[in-house]
TrEMBL record:
It comes from the Bacteria. Catalyzes the reaction of cyanate with bicarbonate to produce ammonia and carbon dioxide. It catalyses: cyanate + hydrogencarbonate + 3 H(+) = NH4(+) + 2 CO2. The lineage of its organism: Bacteria, Bacillati, Actinomycetota, Actinomycetes, Geodermatophilales. Residues 78-149 form the Cyanate lyase C-terminal domain. Belongs to the cyanase family. This is Cyanate hydratase. The keyword Lyase applies. One of its GO terms (molecular function) is cyanate hydratase activity. The keyword Coiled coil does not apply. Transmembrane segments: none annotated.
Length: 149
């Protein structure tokens, strides 16, 4: 019996297949009928992919059964310190470092004592034209969970 492929190894296979087939993440999500940000995160190892969706992804991307199996595993959701030096990820950390305390205050002011869930959560990214250059619009949509005593 062989050992299970890791989710990171599976992600490498997915990336390779996507690039070699000339596919966008949007095209893959459309084929699977799943949201593009969730699909990208899941195929990069951050979510367990339901069996039927993993099978369809495997067929669409011509992935080995070991990759399809690994996509379905429960991930360890940890931050990779090496990724923080990537300029895009660094800027997202910077934005939260600058605006996080203000957003926390405003969430508490509007909703009361609680948090925005990242489990019951939706995220979307869109492009917005602007005379000064295209704008990136990231929408974080999390359920409010109040602290219950």
């Amino acid at each position: 019996m062989s050992i299970l492929m890791t989710k990171a190894e599976a992600a490498d296979h997915v990336r390779t297949a996507r690039v070699r087939k000339g596919l966008t993440w949007t095209a893959i999500a459309d084929e699977l009928g799943t949201p593009v940000v969730w699909t990208t995160a899941a195929l990069l190892g951050q979510h367990p992919v339901p069996g039927e969706v993993a099978q369809r992804a495997g067929a669409f991307l011509d992935l080995d059964e070991a990759v399809v199996e690994a996509l379905q595993l429960q991930p360890y959701r940890t931050a990779d310190p090496a990724l923080r030096s990537d300029p895009t990820i660094y800027r997202l950390h910077e934005a939260l470092a600058v605006y996080g305390p203000a957003l926390k205050e405003l969430i508490h002011e509007e909703f009361g004592d609680g948090i925005m869930s990242a489990i019951n959560f939706k995220v979307d990214i869109t492009r917005r034209p602007d005379p000064g250059g295209a704008r990136v619009v990231i929408t974080l949509d999390g359920k409010f969970l109040d602290y219950a005593w």
